[in-house]
Amino acid sequence: MANNFQLEQEFFKYSKVNFSKLLGFGFTKNKSTYTYSTNIINNTFKVVITINSHGLVNGHIYDLNFNDEYSNFRRETLGIYASRVKEAYLNILTNIKNTCFISSYFNYDQTNRLVNLIQEKYNCSPEFPWDNEPQFAVFKNPDTKKWYGLIMNINKNKLEPEANYEVEVINIKLAPSKIMELLTKPVFYPAYHMNKKNWLTIILDDTISDSEIMSLIEESYSFTVKKSNSKIKN
């Protein structure tokens, strides 16, 4: 079949399935495979979606009038009808993703948990502005567009010359006195690739708790909030 489920792979690229949600959505389980089916376009097509034990999503669409698989929606150039089928299919994938998946943009579990916490607290998703660094993500205040976080995959030798393996880190902005205090503790480093006076690098390897890091992210976010110039009138 054309492009071998590339559509599904790209759609769920930065997501991780929550298997406990699948049955409630309407999936059925057979051994280690979950299957969901529904009809679209006035019951002229049947969509069958499977998710295996590794969270890999595959999908098929069947033309019920001809009792045959329909794959035209996977072509690069689509006609009006194929576009309609694809749109209906993507709507189903979106509902499954929103209900049964969590964001999984990064390699470290702690990084992904923190991303979800940031999204919930600030209604702010990571932005990936650099094609040559696809896993470098920026968090910006939606109102001021100022940065309050930068997640990166880097070699630890950028932080400790004798180390030589990849780590995931976040850079956040803090008061200089706070930075000096934290630099005495593990996983805190002078900011990589940013102003070391005002920014701090944290390795996201579960050495410190999510709640402690989130409290520091809140401080970083506070630097991006617009300051009110209004004066209180008596």
Give the topology, please:
Elements: H1 6-11, E1 15-17, H2 22-25, E2 28-30, E3 33-40, E4 45-51, E5 57-63, E6 68-69, H3 80-100, E7 101-103, H4 109-122, E8 137-140, E9 147-155, E10 166-173, H5 176-182, E11 188-190, E12 199-203, H6 210-222
Antiparallel strand pairs: 1-7, 2-3, 3-4, 4-5, 5-6, 8-9, 9-10, 10-12, 11-12
Jot down its keywords.
alpha+beta, 26% strand, 5-stranded antiparallel beta sheet, 2 domains, 234 residues
Q: Which class do the helix and strand fractions yield?
A: alpha+beta
CATH architecture annotation of the largest domain: Alpha-Beta Complex
How many extended strands? 12
Strand order of the largest sheet: 2-3-4-5-6
Average the pLDDT over all residues and give the rounded result.
91
Helix content: 25-40%
Counting DSSP H or I runs of 4 or more residues, the number of helices is: 6
Major sheet characteristics: 5 strands, antiparallel
Unreliable stretches covering 5 or more consecutive residues: 229-234
Number of domains: 2
Query: For the record, what CATH class of the largest domain applies?
Result: Alpha Beta
CATH topology of the largest domain: Aspartate Aminotransferase, domain 1
Radius of gyration: 23 Å
Instruction: State which percent range the strand residues make up.
Output: 25-35%
Q: Helix and strand string, N-terminal first?
A: HEHEEEEEHEHEEEHEEH
Cα distance, first to last residue?
A: 73 Å
Morphology: elongated
